[in-house]
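Hi all, long-time lurker, first post. I run a small reading group and we've been trying to get comfortable going from sequence to structure in the token notation. Rather than ask abstract questions, I figured I'd post a concrete chain and ask someone more experienced to write out its structure so we can walk through it together at our next meeting. Sequence below, copied exactly:
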Amino acid sequence: QVQLNESGGGLVQAGGSLRLSCAASGRTFTIYAMGWFRQAPGKEREFVAAISGGGGRTYYADSVLGRFTISRDNAKNTVYLQMNSLKPEDTAAYYCNAKLNFPPRSSWGPTTFASWGQGTQVTVSS
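-- Answer (accepted) --
Happy to help. Here is the structure in token form:
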């Protein structure tokens, strides 16, 4: 089981940018596809983006397509989420998680994961 540690959250004005990082432990990072998720107060956790082990394939939620970019640096065991043109509705705790291989988009529901890290808070002010 890979251990994950999210960082990079903060307070930003609408229209601004942030880059989140998720550092993973272990020496088999490339066998895991990585995903970002978020949970706003009073709402269910939702999928944001995912990337394959080699970084060549990605999925995005419609709400972030064109504004967020997921990437990974396998030499550093780290996956990133570059968030541009942030909106107040992007305010949430952001989490990363891992799946073996690169399942179809339909398999990335938050309920398919058994455990979560502490996340990192993103607050976008209007």
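A couple of things your group might point at:
Strands lie at 4-7, 10-13, 18-24, 32-39, 46-51, 58-60, 68-73, 78-83, 92-100, 120-125.
The radius of gyration is 13 Å.
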